[in-house]
Design a protein that fits this description.
The protein is globular. It has 21 helices and 2 strands. Helix 18 runs parallel beside helix 20. With about 475 residues, it is mainly α. The chain is about 50% helix and about 0% strand. Among the domains are: about 70 residues, no CATH class; about 100 residues. The chain has a two-stranded antiparallel sheet. The longest helix has about 35 residues.
Length: about 475
């Protein structure tokens, strides 16, 4: 019996090997191999030229795009990058690609004007609702917001290159060109509030990075953690400490990240929420949005916590009670009503304590020092007490409020209110000493690199 089985096994192995040897070449070519993008008849010749040229010149870009949903729908380079000859963002250097003699794709008949920068206005050709929602958000308008409230910019306390490499990388730059090329001071930049040459605001690629434009990537907390981290807005650290983050760490590899837009459902596609599922994705009767200003009932990043509609730098056109109900409905996909309402009651108490016990008394004292001439009002950050006051709300105060909002107790207390106390005590003690002694605070005479322009961007604020 055993001998018969072995003979059958050897006969089958011989047949498979022999078949592969005599198989026609064209049949071998049809066997499964690594995925390759196939040029379809619906793609115009200029689009084919783009694909074939970039496949050779930038294989990483091509591979990313070829594995994207765009490629699966025959959306090519031309569909996103095509421009009109008179557009201000036309890449003039790209015309030189059509003068090459070492490739069949460089011929003049394939020449089309393209823009190197793809903007929300470009994306709106296929995604009009998302672009409209995004344009109303704090993300799209954050460059305007920081110029309205940030003493680093308004008092010129950091250099232009410090801004370009730091602040503007997340908040966005005002794109400029010289001799048809984007300037290194403003590009590369994918800041969420970038002011584009076509006058649109923002960029879609901070969350849906090019050229894959993956919905999975945008749904993961790491996408938000590119900008929302660090001492002043550590949302990614807060999230990872919370129970939600713990669940994501344990079970995230089991989530259905590729669910179609508008259908990603708690309890079905994922067990615990991410930043996107709370602030953007649809749940229950709450619809998906690309306006992250929605669903907020407090401005926890502002110096004095206010309702979003009362935030002077960018008053939201929303009703905080309506938006709170939306967020609570999202929460109640996984939590009972009592759990959710009690959490919000606790958050409201945290806001009240921060405002009345820490921020307002410190702000009153700061104003008193300016009135008495003990602090110099001409610039900020060049006196120790100005730094103490700034970090009270911008660092510890934000961590306390955000930690409470996102259920991360270590940030609400040890990184938040505990450090608020230390900062507050140091600030008030020195302030009272200055008043008692009628002594002016020492100024940092050799403040480094306070060379940045204080002129607000004309394209946002007009002539001032």
């Amino acid at each position: 019996m055993k001998k018969g089985v072995w003979c059958l096994f050897l006969l089958l192995a011989f047949f498979l090997i022999f078949s592969s040897l005599i198989m026609p070449a064209e049949a071998k070519d049809n066997m499964a191999k690594e995925k390759a993008f196939r040029i379809e008849r619906s793609i115009p010749d200029a689009g084919v030229a783009c694909i074939q040229c970039h496949k050779r010149e930038h294989p990483g870009i091509f591979a990313d795009w070829a594995n994207s949903g765009h490629a699966s729908s025959n959306i090519t380079c031309i569909d996103c990058h095509k421009a009109q000859k008179h557009d201000p963002d036309v890449a003039k250097d790209h015309y030189k690609q059509y003068e090459k003699s070492d490739t069949e794709w460089g011929r003049p008949e394939y020449r089309v004007p393209v823009a190197g920068v793809v903007t929300p206005k470009d994306c709106s050709r296929c995604h009009p609702d998302e672009a409209k929602q995004y344009s109303k958000s704090k993300h799209a308008n954050t460059l305007e917001i920081i110029w309205k409230i940030d003493p680093w910019l308004n008092d010129g306390m950091n250099s232009d290159i410090e801004r370009a490499s730091g602040c503007y990388y997340c908040h966005g730059s005002v794109l400029k060109t010289e001799e048809g090329n984007l300037t290194p001071e403003t590009w590369p930049n994918v800041g969420v509030g970038r002011l584009n040459l076509d006058s649109s605001k923002g960029s879609c690629t901070p969350c849906h990075t090019r050229h894959r434009f993956s919905i999975m990537e945008a749904r993961k907390p790491e996408a938000c953690g590119q900008c929302h981290l660090g001492p002043d807005h550590p949302q990614i650290e807060i999230y990872m400490e919370s129970k939600h983050g713990d669940i994501y760490t344990a079970f995230g590899d089991q989530y259905n990240w590729e669910s179609a837009p508008g259908t990603w459902s708690p309890g079905v596609d994922f067990r615990g929420p991410t930043c996107a599922s709370c602030h953007m994705s649809g749940a229950g009767s709450v619809r998906t949005t690309h306006d992250v200003t929605e669903r907020l009932s407090w401005e926890t990043q502002a110096p004095l916590t206010v309702r979003p509609s009362e935030f002077k730098a960018f008053p939201a056109k929303t009703n905080w009670q309506v938006e709170r109900e939306k967020m609570q409905e999202v929460c109640m996909q996984c939590h009972g009503k009592n759990w959710v309402t009690d959490h919000y009651e606790k958050l409201d108490q945290v806001i009240e304590e921060y405002n009345t016990a820490y921020y307002q008394p410190a702000k009153h004292m700061l104003d008193k020092l300016y009135e008495k001439g003990l602090l110099d009002p001409n610039r900020f950050f060049d006196e120790a007490l100005e730094n103490e006051f700034y970090e009270l709300w911008h660092h510890e105060g934000r961590r306390a409020r955000m930690g409470a909002a996102m259920m991360a107790p270590d940030y609400a207390w040890w990184h938040g209110f505990y450090e608020c106390k230390q900062r507050y005590n140091a600030f008030m003690s020195e302030a009272k000493a200055l008043i008692e002694e009628n002594r002016k605070a020492p100024i940092y005479e050799d403040y480094p690199n306070a060379t940045g322009t204080t002129k607000r961007p004309e394209k946002i604020f007009g002539e001032e």
